Amino acid sequence: MVSGIYTTGFSDYDTIAKRFRKSAILPYEFNGGVYALPETQTFQVMFYRSDILEELGLNPPKTWNELFVLLGRLQKKNMTIFMPPSVLTRTLRMKSMRKFWKNTEHYVN
């Protein structure tokens, strides 16, 4: 049995919980209660040089696929983008897993 106060018992829990993604709260859930709230939450933001994109006749990407196409065009001009390794690794892994599951769904009942 877990002892302690669970956060869902506070009257303003729903208001505060809306500040976080569900996935950020999930690790703190147990037996129907939430026993903590995240101290921090990270999210990815992209900054870009609009003057460079304009000079090259490119638009800011809106999807990961557009970003990878943009990267190829930038690399032809000896430029690149910076992505923290964890973001790039996670993105490539997600793309690989989607492709894997798409190609193996006929094996899964």
Describe this protein's structure.
It is a single chain. By secondary structure, the protein is mostly helical. It has two domains: 41 residues, no CATH class; 58 residues, no CATH class. The protein is 43% helix and 4% strand. Strands 1-2 form a two-stranded antiparallel ribbon. β1 and β2 form a beta hairpin. The longest helix is centred in the C-terminal third of the chain and has 20 residues. It is elongated and about 60 Å long. The chain starts with 12 loop residues before the first helix and ends in a 5-residue tail after the last helix.
Could you outline the blueprint of secondary structure elements for this entry?
Elements: H1 13-17, H2 22-25, E1 29-30, E2 33-34, H3 50-55, H4 64-75, H5 85-104
Antiparallel strand pairs: 1-2
Strand order of the largest sheet: 1-2
Oligomer: single chain
Enumerate how many helices there are, as a single number.
Answer: 5
- Strand segment tally: 2
- Give the strand content: under 5%
Summary, kept brief:
The protein is mainly alpha-helical and 109 residues long. It has helices at 13-17, 22-25, 50-55, 64-75, 85-104, and strands at 29-30, 33-34.
Keywords:
elongated, 2 domains, mainly alpha, 109 residues
